[in-house]
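User: Structure please.
Assistant: Input sequence and predicted structure:
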Amino acid sequence: MTKSTSSANTTLSTASGMRLLVVGGGQMGRALVGGMLTQGVMKASQVVVLEPSAESRVWWTEHQGEVMLAESLEKSIDAADAVLLAVKPGVVAKVTQQQAGFWAGKLVISIAAGVNMAKLCGWIGHQRVVRVMPNTPSLVGQGASAFCSAADVSAADQAWIESILQSVGKAFRVEESQMDGVTGLSGSGPAYICVIIEALADGGVLAGLPRALAQKLAIQTVLGTATMVAETGRHPGELKDAVASPGGTTIAGLRVLEQNGMRGTIMDAVAAAAERSRELDQV
């Protein structure tokens, strides 16, 4: 879908008076609201969270006590300028089809994997909709989020969405056709990296290191390497070659990784997750 200019009364030229309803107060809702408040994108008085879980409501009361908790969608949606749908894919259809008449004029943001723009716009009844794929490192301010927009999302709307996502990491504007690939890579990628960290630590234990030390070394190695790639701008292959001295320890280890198809396995994992995202889109 292509972007078009929204009317003045539905454009977010500033977040100063914005009122945001967050439907779903789980991990990602907590991360995004926490980032917005910490970075000053919004004030606590501008945010309302709708969360049915009693346990989760306790968390909000204890950790974000200034944020108002809503009793129901019916009682909270009318006062909102924008709605963030931070719920599971299977819940999105049910939520968006409730109170259908109240979605008019509101910016609607969905983080549900595999729910395409056509479905969202159809359920909500307009095209001022943004689809986002964040990831779990957003919980620590190091997220990688991608987003795409439907036809009636203005440049100001997009800038505001970008500011929200940048409050918890980095944000990238993409075409909707790329969202399944994003889901397979950065959406699911943290799980792959956790497996790699765990495997590195296990390898250290196998080589005689204490478990606690092995895990700390594995974590810092992954963190430091990612930072090095990001800050130097050099290709990962070039940095890999710099470590692999002729006849040395690293090249011996790399040979084992190549023999066991590590590259192909990781590529297949990304592709499988992307394909599963496409399948969810067809449900």
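Confidence is low (pLDDT under 50) at residues 1-14.
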